Amino acid sequence: MSEKCSRRQRISIPEFYRHKSVFITGVTGFLGKVLLEKLLRSCPEIKRCYVLIRPKKGQSPQERIAGVLNSKLYDKLRSSLPDLKERVVPVCGDILEPRLGMSEEDEQMVIENANIVFHSAATVKFDEELKLSVQMNVLGVRRIVELAKKIRNLEALVHISTAYANCDKDSVKEVVYDPPLHPSKIIDAMEWMDKDAIQVLTSKLIGSRPNTYTYTKAMAEFLLKEESAGLPTAILRPSIVGAAWEEPLPGWVDNLNGPTGLLAAIGKGLLFIMHGNIYCTADMIPVDTATNAIIAVAWYTAIERPKDVLVYNCTSGQINRLTWGAMESSLRENFIVNPCHDMARVPNPRFTPSMFWRDTMWFLDQMVPAYIMDFYLWVTGKKPIFVKIQDRLSKAVTTLEFFTSNEWHFHNDNIFMLLGKMSEADKHTFCFDPRSIDWKKYMINYCLGVKQFVLKEDIAELPRARIALQRLQRIQSLLKVVAAVLIWRLLVKRVPVLHSLWNLLLSWVQFLFMKVPRLARSS
């Protein structure tokens, strides 16, 4: 038996996935898209990828997955894998529905053919209503486990959680923590409680956690551990998932969730002040780093069959530290060197630990200019937009400030153990070691990625954007001088002490201009 285990350990990751089929949820999400692309590109002999997709906005699952496969992210893969569309099989379903909303035929297809299950689907809205968050993040996990128990040749079930599921603790180990309330009780409560009652109880239920997302993710982990007994199961907890570091496109990102939305707002000159501590860790993990870890975790879980559910903290803070202060400086520098088009103002992001200062500067440095710019738009016959943008931005920023103002110690023992089990070739192909990340280079690519992939701006137009930025800098400097003069004149007239000081200053200036030249001539 030991000889067999030793032989299986020598199987590389691509070899392990050869002729295997996987079942993936959340494939239309940011992480899911990269996971599917990486599996197909680096494990080219994988048999099938069954992807659970629900119809949305009049689009069928087939149309939605076609949109994913035809995106820029899959450009390389389309040329190297001619049968790409045959390898990816869309399965109509929804994690909110019993049996995942699959037809009997589709369910049987997955049961008969799938070997590995990746559960990535979840609501990532921090301020989601508790009922929907429970239904998607907790009850959805139960339905995945129910399906996994039916799969005939299941080798691994990997659940993607979040490192912040236990953000009520300063030190987070790679274990599943007991929740304050059993998941079954909260699931049952959501069935009979009305919307108003749930809203009233939400803050009491989540306790010291900042939102329903982290609360339900912690619930989901416990439920998974409890109900997946006997199944080869693992949990991966990425921290703040950011743009791609290297693969398949450096800086690739396709949504405004999390830090990407902040970067876009900063780049456009709309966000200047946030509550945060510049000395705290910005625990960022690139999406391709997280994806590589997910694929390796499934490999190890299938090969080793650990007795317990292993948890992997896929984080960077204790391994290759980036601070919010370093990010602040990097964003300011990068958006000046590579500016966005049509900026409202010159980018100048700042973090402050003071909520009073944050609120004061938000009003003076963001809301007042927004009203002025909206007044200008109104006068010129255009639709005012800036105040509405600031209102939406305020809500988005508020949900993130808990994470920019605190830091956690994430243990990474299992991550390093997994790295130690991999061959050098696999470590290169499926690299998830945060020590390989050059944060300076990463932030340059991230900012360019936001500009190119999210804001849909042409990189070739950068010279024109730089000219526009220089013009904006001159206008902004002139306005600051005018404002300073006006404020000073107003204060001089209204405050007697300042009026006296001003007269004293003028008299000294007059003295210097009149007396000094005379002394020079006489000497």
From TrEMBL:
Membrane topology: Multi-pass membrane protein
Protein localization: Membrane
EC nos: 1.2.1.84
Domain Fatty acyl-CoA reductase C-terminal: 366-457
Listed GO MF terms: alcohol-forming long-chain fatty acyl-CoA reductase activity; alcohol-forming very long-chain fatty acyl-CoA reductase activity
Domain annotation Thioester reductase (TE): ranges: 24-294
Cited InterPro entries: FAR, FAR_C, FAR_NAD-bd, NAD(P)-bd_dom_sf
Catalytic activity entry: a long-chain fatty acyl-CoA + 2 NADPH + 2 H(+) = a long-chain primary fatty alcohol + 2 NADP(+) + CoA
Family matches, as CDD domains: FAR-N_SDR_e (cd05236), FAR_C (cd09071)
GO biological process: long-chain fatty-acyl-CoA metabolic process
A GO cellular component entry from the record: membrane
Keywords noted in UniProt: Lipid biosynthesis, Lipid metabolism, Membrane, NADP, Oxidoreductase, Transmembrane, Transmembrane helix
Annotated family: Belongs to the fatty acyl-CoA reductase family.
Role description: Catalyzes the reduction of fatty acyl-CoA to fatty alcohols.
Protein name: Fatty acyl-CoA reductase
Species assigned in the record: Biomphalaria glabrata (Bloodfluke planorb)
